[in-house]
Amino acid sequence: MGGNKIITDEDLFSLKVSKLWRAFRSESFAFWMICVYLFFEYVRPQSILPFLDILPWAQLAVLGALIGCFFDKTVKWVSSFGNKLLITFLLIIIISSMSAYWPQVSYNNLDKLYSWIVIYFLIICIVNTRQRFFIFFLIFLLASFKISASLAMTWAGRSFTFTGWGLMGPPGFFQNSGELAIQMVVYWPVALALTVFLKPYLSKWMYVICMAMPITAWAVILGSSTRGGQLALFAQFVKKYFHRITRPKILIAIALGASVFWSFLPDEQKQRFSSMGEDKTSQQRLLYWQNGWEMMLDHPVVGVGYFNFIPYYETYYVDDMLYKNAQLPHNIFIQVGTDAGFLGLSIYTAIILYSFFVTRALGKEKSEMILMESKLATAFNYSLIGFVVAGQFVTVAYYPFLWIHLSMVTALKNIARKRTAHSNV
Fold first, then answer.
1. What's the whole-model pTM score?
2. First and final CA of the chain: distance in angstroms?
3. Secondary structure tally for the chain: helices H, strands E
4. Which of 31, 104, 274, 302 lies at 20 to 30 Å from 239 by C-alpha?
């Protein structure tokens, strides 16, 4: 499809559109479809241009990728301990749904988990070479950059002032400010890592454009008015520079960064931090966490039922509702713990730890053959830290953050393993 000319790493790393397009065209139908899925899931053109919203594009792309796998001889099964954890988690959720207080509520929401497992397996099996990963990952970054750049300009256009709703993303997973901020804390570390790695291959202007990715992500986190996302950003910087914090240059950089952060933070947002734990929103969340923990203790094995938190809370904790209706618990661990008990929570936590230790190990590799994979692996750990910290304040256990992260981490590990094995032959 793309001719006989070999596409080198340097061709990809230059980020020249013609070379990237030639690389994309040379790939299989299955790979095209998984990229189309990512584009429609993250960019959501069907929401921006209503005339496109006539078909379930993302679902059709997943179906196309699945069909394409049968005609792509390069698609092979990828063994991973993460696979076993995912399947185990799904089985626990199914058991929890069957024993739930309101089983129909559980059944109606099962697609919020099993669809991610299907997508996970498609990604790790199809995205199995450096070229494929680079293109797929670039689509992820560009889709996120589209959001961060436009919203950073929106915030600047209103003179960096505070609004109660913060910044809002496109309809879908990143529309609300809390979920939008999580996407930014997930995206900026890997965007920065790739930009630094690619610097020797990029033109001056392309490097500046790439550096705009993490910078605009930081701006969106600040403008989102969500405390969880801002605390996650702080935690990421602490983790990134903690071992060098005694160096004068690092101390000066931290001081300057903190000063800029504080100066751009609207006064109303500063007041939200000072009133944390005292305002009505915080008090309701504390009640959700406290009563959610009680639910877990009362139903330790498989919880009250998958997605049964709201009806259970409105039935048994009506006196602890500060608003007319209950919401989900605003904490990923309380969410999973009430959904699937300590059994499900232990597997969910194991998935997070598995992701962390896989990328930690890969990040320590020094081989030139997998230098890009190693640099990205380290950055993925900062993304995971951001997700976990921000996840203490929002209910996003079944959002794409962890599942797409896990698929990319597994794919990266598989590609690094194959490249290392090939270099040793």
1. 0.90
2. 29
3. 19, 0
4. 274
d(CA 175, CA 399) in angstroms, rounded, equals 12
Distance CA 136, CA 65 (A): 13
Q: How far is CA 187 from CA 146, 194, 206, in A?
A: 12, 11, 18
Residue 164 — φ and ψ, nearest 5°? -60, -30
Structure token digits, residue 160 = 């960096």
List, for residues 47-103, the tens digit of each pLDDT value.
778 888 888 999 999 999 999 999 999 999 999 999 999 999 999 999 999 999 999
Residue 23: closest CA among 41, 40, 10, 36:
10
List the structure tokens of 413.
């590990």
Q: Which long-range contacts (CB under 8 A, 24 or more apart) does 398-403 make?
A: 398/112, 398/113, 398/116, 399/173, 399/179, 399/182, 400/41, 400/116, 400/173, 401/182, 401/183, 401/186, 402/351, 402/352, 402/355, 403/116, 403/117, 403/119, 403/120
Q: Is 301 left (phi over 0), alpha (psi -120 to 50) or beta?
A: alpha
Cβ(69)–Cβ(126) below 8 Å: yes
Of 86, 70, 21, give the one whose Cα is nearest residue 404: 86
- The CA-atom distances, in angstroms, between 361 and each of 114, 310, 364 are 28, 39, 5
Q: How far apart, in whole angstroms, are the C-alpha atoms of residue 190 and residue 177?
A: 21
Query: What's the chain's Rg over C-alpha atoms?
Result: 22
What phi and psi values does residue 392 have, to the nearest 5 degrees?
Answer: -75, -5
- For 160, left (φ over 0), alpha (ψ -120 to 50), or beta? left
* Tokens 């709703």 sit on residue: 165
Give residue 51's identity as a one-letter amino acid code: F
DSSP-assigned letter for residue 406: H
Q: What is the pLDDT of residues 101-126, one digit of tens each?
A: 999 999 999 999 999 999 999 999 99
DSSP 8-class letter at 200: G
Cβ–Cβ under 8 Å, residues 114 and 398: no
CA dihedral 346, 386, 146, 205 (to 10 degrees): -130
User: What one-letter code names the amino acid at 56?
Assistant: P
> Amino acid identity, residue 318?
V
